[in-house]
Amino acid sequence: MPPEMDLVKVLGKGTYGSVELFSHKQNDGSLLYNAVKVMDSENYGSIDQEFRILSELRGCPCIVQLCGNSLVQGTDCNGRKVYKMSMEYAAAGTLTNFIQRNRTKLSDSVIKDFTRMILNGLVSIHSHGYVHCDLKPDNILLFPIYDKETWNCSYELKISDFGISTRAGDKSDCWRIDEPWVGTSIYMSPESVRDGTTVEKTLDLWSLGCIVLEMYTGKRPWLGFDKHVKSLLLDKKAPEIPETVPCDARQFLEKCFARKPEERGTASELLLHPFLIRDEKMGSAAAAGERTGMVLRLRNPPPILKDTPTKPLKLKAISQKPQQFKKVSNKPLKVKIVPPRPRRSDFVPVQ
Q: How many helices (DSSP H) and strands (DSSP E) are in the chain?
C-alpha cells in the first residue's frame, strides 16, 4: 500500500477489524481507490490466511483481487499494531445493498446472470481445494460497468472475505457445540450443524441456494425463524420456496437444498443446470443495472408478406363533366388511386 494514500472513509466495521477506503493520485493526476482490510495483531492468523488464499486466486474470475504483494504492518489511531491488506474497490457495494435498493424483486435474467458469476467464483475456489464457508450477500461485491455510449450500468460480481475459508475435508476452527456454525447461521447447511468437524465443498452450494432465494424474494432465508434455525436444520428442513419462484429456478433451488450433500453435485455441474443455460442459448445479455433502456417487444408475430398486397388497390374513375350520350368528351378521365389503410404497428415500447 503506497505511503501517500489518504483515508476517504470507513466502509464497514466488524468484530475483528474494519474495511476502509483509501485513495492516491496516479501519474496522470487521476485518483485510484483501494479498499483496505485492517485487523489487529490478535487476529493476524485470519488476515494472513485470507491473504494467502487470495494470492492463490490471483487472476481467477469473479474473485476480489489483491492490490499488493504483502500485508502491511502499521498502527491504528490508538497506537495498536494492525495489519492491512489492500484490495480492489467495489464502488457499487455488496449484493445485500443491491437487493435493498431494488425493493421489488430482481428480474429473472439479472438473477440468472448474478448466479452464473457466483458459481464461476465457486468453481475457482473449489478447484484450488478450498471451501469458502461464509458465502452470503454481504460477502459478494458488485463492480459497476458503464456503457460509454448509453451510460447504462451492468455489474460484475466477485466473491470476497476468505477469513474463515478452509481446505476441503479439513476441520473448521469456527464450529463449536454451543454455536454449531461454520459460517453465518442462516446460510449454513444441515450437515454443518450436525457435524462441523469436516468441511466439504457442497456446503457452499447450500449457501448459494439461500442467496438465489433471497434475490427472488428480497428477504433473508429463515426470516422469522432465526432462533429456530438449528432445530430446523437438524430436522433436515430447507428454507421455504414461494410459489412465485419460476419452475426452473425452483428445480435449481431444490438441487442446492438436497438433504444429501452429494446430490447437490458440483459448482461446475450447476452451471449446466437448465435454469442457467436456457437464456444463454437464446443469447442472454449481461446483467442489467438498476437503470434499463427501452426495448421493443413483439406483441403478435406479423403475417408473412408476399410481393403483392393482400388487398387490391381501389380504382375510382372521375369525369370532369357528366358524359353525354350523343357526344363523347375529349378530355381524359382522371384516375384516383386509394391505397389501403396502413397496418397498425405490432411493436409496443416496454420499460
A: 9, 13
